[in-house]
Amino acid sequence: MSALRPDLAIIAREVRAGTRVLDVGCGDGQLMAALRDTKNVDARGLELNAHDVATSVSRGLSVIQGDADTDLAEYPDGSFDYAILSQTLQTTKRPDLVLDHLVRIGREAFVSFPNFAQWRIRFAHMFGGRMPVTKQLPHLWYDTPNIHHVTIDDFRSLLHERNIEIEGQWFLSGNKPRADRFANLLAQHAVFKLRPK
Amino acid sequence: MALLMQEDTRFGLDKKARLLGPVRLDSGAEFAPVDIAYETYGALNADKSNAILICHALTGDQYVASTHPMTGKDGWWTRMVGAGKPIDPARHCIISINVMGSCMGSSGPASIDPTTGAAYAMAFPVITIPDMVRAQALLLDHLGIETLEAVVGGSMGGMQALSWAALYPERVKSAVVIASTARHSAQNIAFHEVGRQAIMADPRWNNGAYYGHEAPSSGLAVARMAAHITYLSEAGLTEKFGRRLQNRDAKSFGFDADFQVESYLRYQGLSFVDRFDANSYLYITRAMDYFDLAEPHDGVLAKAFAGTKTRFCLISFDSDWLYPTAESRRIVHALNAAGAAVSFVELSSPFGHDAFLLEAPEMNRIVDGFLRAGEPS
Questions:
Q1: What ipTM does this complex have?
Q2: Using an 8 Å Cβ cutoff, are B372 and B313 in contact?
Q3: A6-116+148-196 is classed in which CATH architecture?
Q4: In the CATH hierarchy, which top-level class contains the domain B188-285?
Q5: Which one of A158, B146, B211, B221 has the fewest beta carbons within 10 angstroms of its own beta carbon?
Q6: CB contact under 8 A, A64 and B362
Q7: CA dihedral of A126, A130, A135, A136, whole degrees rounded to 10
Q8: pLDDT per residue over B136-180, tens digit each?
Q9: Number of helices (H) and strands (E), helices first, in chain A?
Q10: Which residue of A has its CA nearest to B342?
């Protein structure tokens, strides 16, 4: 299996062995397969794309085709040790409600997203005067799946408002971890571990 | 072991067995004797862990992957079952059973009632989907198969697969439910009632006592025509027939089959009556209409699967309006609530309900991966 995406590698490292995990927006099931194979995790997935669901199921994973915006309400409270949302928050219609569901369904939650306040994006916006198109966010404004861009500071303020506690946070520039200092300006990606207060 | 199994006369093509005990029916009655017609492909492995039961749809039969004795056509699911297919006799011991109430060798209304020496006709008890499954379980006892690696079915076959998982959770390791539902809707019942009324309105039906005389084939053909429409989609019909005329350049201003779609439906109806018994059609449609897996659980479907260890895989098709995706989702939600390991995907197809019987590479990929995940690597 190819190496995990850096944000997924962080999540895979932090998840305790033998736990129950719901991966929301699980894609082709890479993280779930890694958790199952290396940590004996009972992983379940939710994914919008039918082809990705088919790939996940053909890997022997339990994945349901569905939409984070509408289908998370069906999951009972505390039914998983972890609820994971990687690179999906910015594609949802109501990220705030999705976040509420994550910390309700999972006793803990992991959320990762691209940071829209990273300096390259700020520069592109400031000097280009156009919606930024970068390696991390390669889509044009009219066909991007990323309908709710978010920055690290925006996310922290939402957590505060929703009474959600940060248990851990990791930042990435390219594929490399970087310090917390000036993360909102310097980090391309953020991974947060959360729990309700 | 494989050689031994081949010598075991219980296994092979075109088999029939009389069940040892009576079948306890949902109606409260006990029914005996019950004959069950079935086929097996492939050999049971040493620890008897590779048995897969294929459940057929309303007008299907046990000839899943072998030539149909009446029509001479290939089996009805050779795209899913066979060498190199997801369900493969090289790996699996495949069992397909003609449901009780049908007419391809299993006990049904056309069978002889030993107490009268004549066909049961309407004296055959009204049965349910769970009743069919109970009879299948007795047949597996006869075959010495305790647990199934998988129960697989589309449409009514999916209802049986769900019932298997609900009735015998410890005997079913996994269930594949395709283009199916956990209950018949008012619309489903309504279409079936049209079919039944067509049969019963045929004077030859004679309250079911037509055996030895002419069968109510006009009524049965109309029933099949009406049902067949529900197996297709509007887009599929439009693509296949549009408003094209059948072997003529202009409308006839009469009631011949002017349109290709009329001709097609008439053919579907006529070819069906050669291979199917009208009373079986009444009994099996009734069983499907009575089907509501949540009913014995105060209407809470999740309770039907409480504590289940069975793995589930559900597949629906976006153009299926007979058992639309919403019905599969309802099952998925119930299984989620029960904490079951469940996978679900809606596949895209222009062919409506019948899509599960047609070429669907994505469906095969999913079923293959799902089954392999439950097998020792």
A1: 0.87
A2: no
A3: 3-Layer(aba) Sandwich (3.40)
A4: mainly alpha
A5: B146
A6: no
A7: 80
A8: 999 999 999 999 999 999 999 999 999 999 999 999 999 999 999
A9: 8, 8
A10: A62
